[in-house]
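Protein in question filed below.

…
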Amino acid sequence: MPLSQNHLDQLLRGTLTAQERLLVVLVRDLEGRNVDLSTILLSDIDRVSGILQLRLDGRVELVRLGRETIRVLHEYQQQRRDKEPALIVDQEGRPLSKSGIDVALGELAQREGLQFDTERFRFQEPKAARGPRLVTKGASRDLFYLYGIVSHPLRRQVVELLGDEGPTGFTQIKSSLNVRVGTLYYHFDMLAGLVAQDSQKRYVLTEAGKDAYRKLRSAEYVQSTSVLADSLPSTQTGIEKGLRFLFPSRLLASIQSLSPVAVALAAVVLGLGAFSTYQAGLETVALFLNSSSQSPLLLGLGFLGNWLLVYAVADGIATLVFRRNGEHLVLLLGTAYALVPLLVFVAWWDLATALTLQAPGLTTIALSRVVLVLAQAWSLALLARIVSVLKGLRLDKAAVISLVIAYLSIVIAYVRAA
């Protein structure tokens, strides 16, 4: 566990030279990085701006050093009589190697009853001297439960905001935390049991939430959180990881911000869909594509009508059933991307019919039906991911919306066939 400011002040008071003081403040400023102090030159530090050009794994990272570090550096340079450009040198003015600097840091820490962790580049208490991470078994159990709920920084901020401010409206919380509507709804969903709404629709902490707020403010929990963050495994399921691969978060963020690129790509998807169904003579029925003799123009317009139908059902269920108001325009844009698999099927259909592709025991039509089922499953998975993020729903609830649209597709296709 990293040292507190009191321990670092104690280390500084125990230093004997300006070089030792410089080492302590550098460790404080660069803690946690894979740093080799032997490679740092005096010229790498701008004493006016306090910026250090730090070379890490072949790249340069700019680090702002503290005022005290610059002051100690100035003191250290005044005492040096050598012309060596290296930052850390020995008494004869020769550059110290990495191992020599690590030894110096280890000896400095040992004088104060501490240790220096070379891998994490920080001072720390000896393992034997550390107290228990948690005081009681009950506290340990409560902490793991609490951490599971508020592990996300935004959920913790929500609990702390409501604990500090009391009953607060949705708009005020959204403005204070500077988040999207869908994102905030999602995290309120995850905070069920800790956060509720009063008669005026303001968000408040429940009794369990107030207890969580007190625990989050306690020294015991604050000290233990960083340890838990490093040791607990990811709670993300394999399905969620797979959907992130199918539809990257960066693209969803672009849709949420209604960026010109996201809008342009959605227009391309819709334009290609309308043109390709028009050209292939395919009729779009929700998530089904059937060969049709209708007017090609109607088939092209049908693809756009299908897009609006899927959006209307998804937005209607999210708004009316799951009470996710807002973000209507971004969902309209996002729904276009869920139709990409249908474009893939149209491309397959053109190829299959042109070359009369078939598999053993399957005609071209039968094989195409298999491909269509796979495209529909892909489309439903994309839709669940899009609705989950843009409307702030848990993935299981977003999956319900996808299933409703799937059943609706089957019903419409069955009715039209009858």
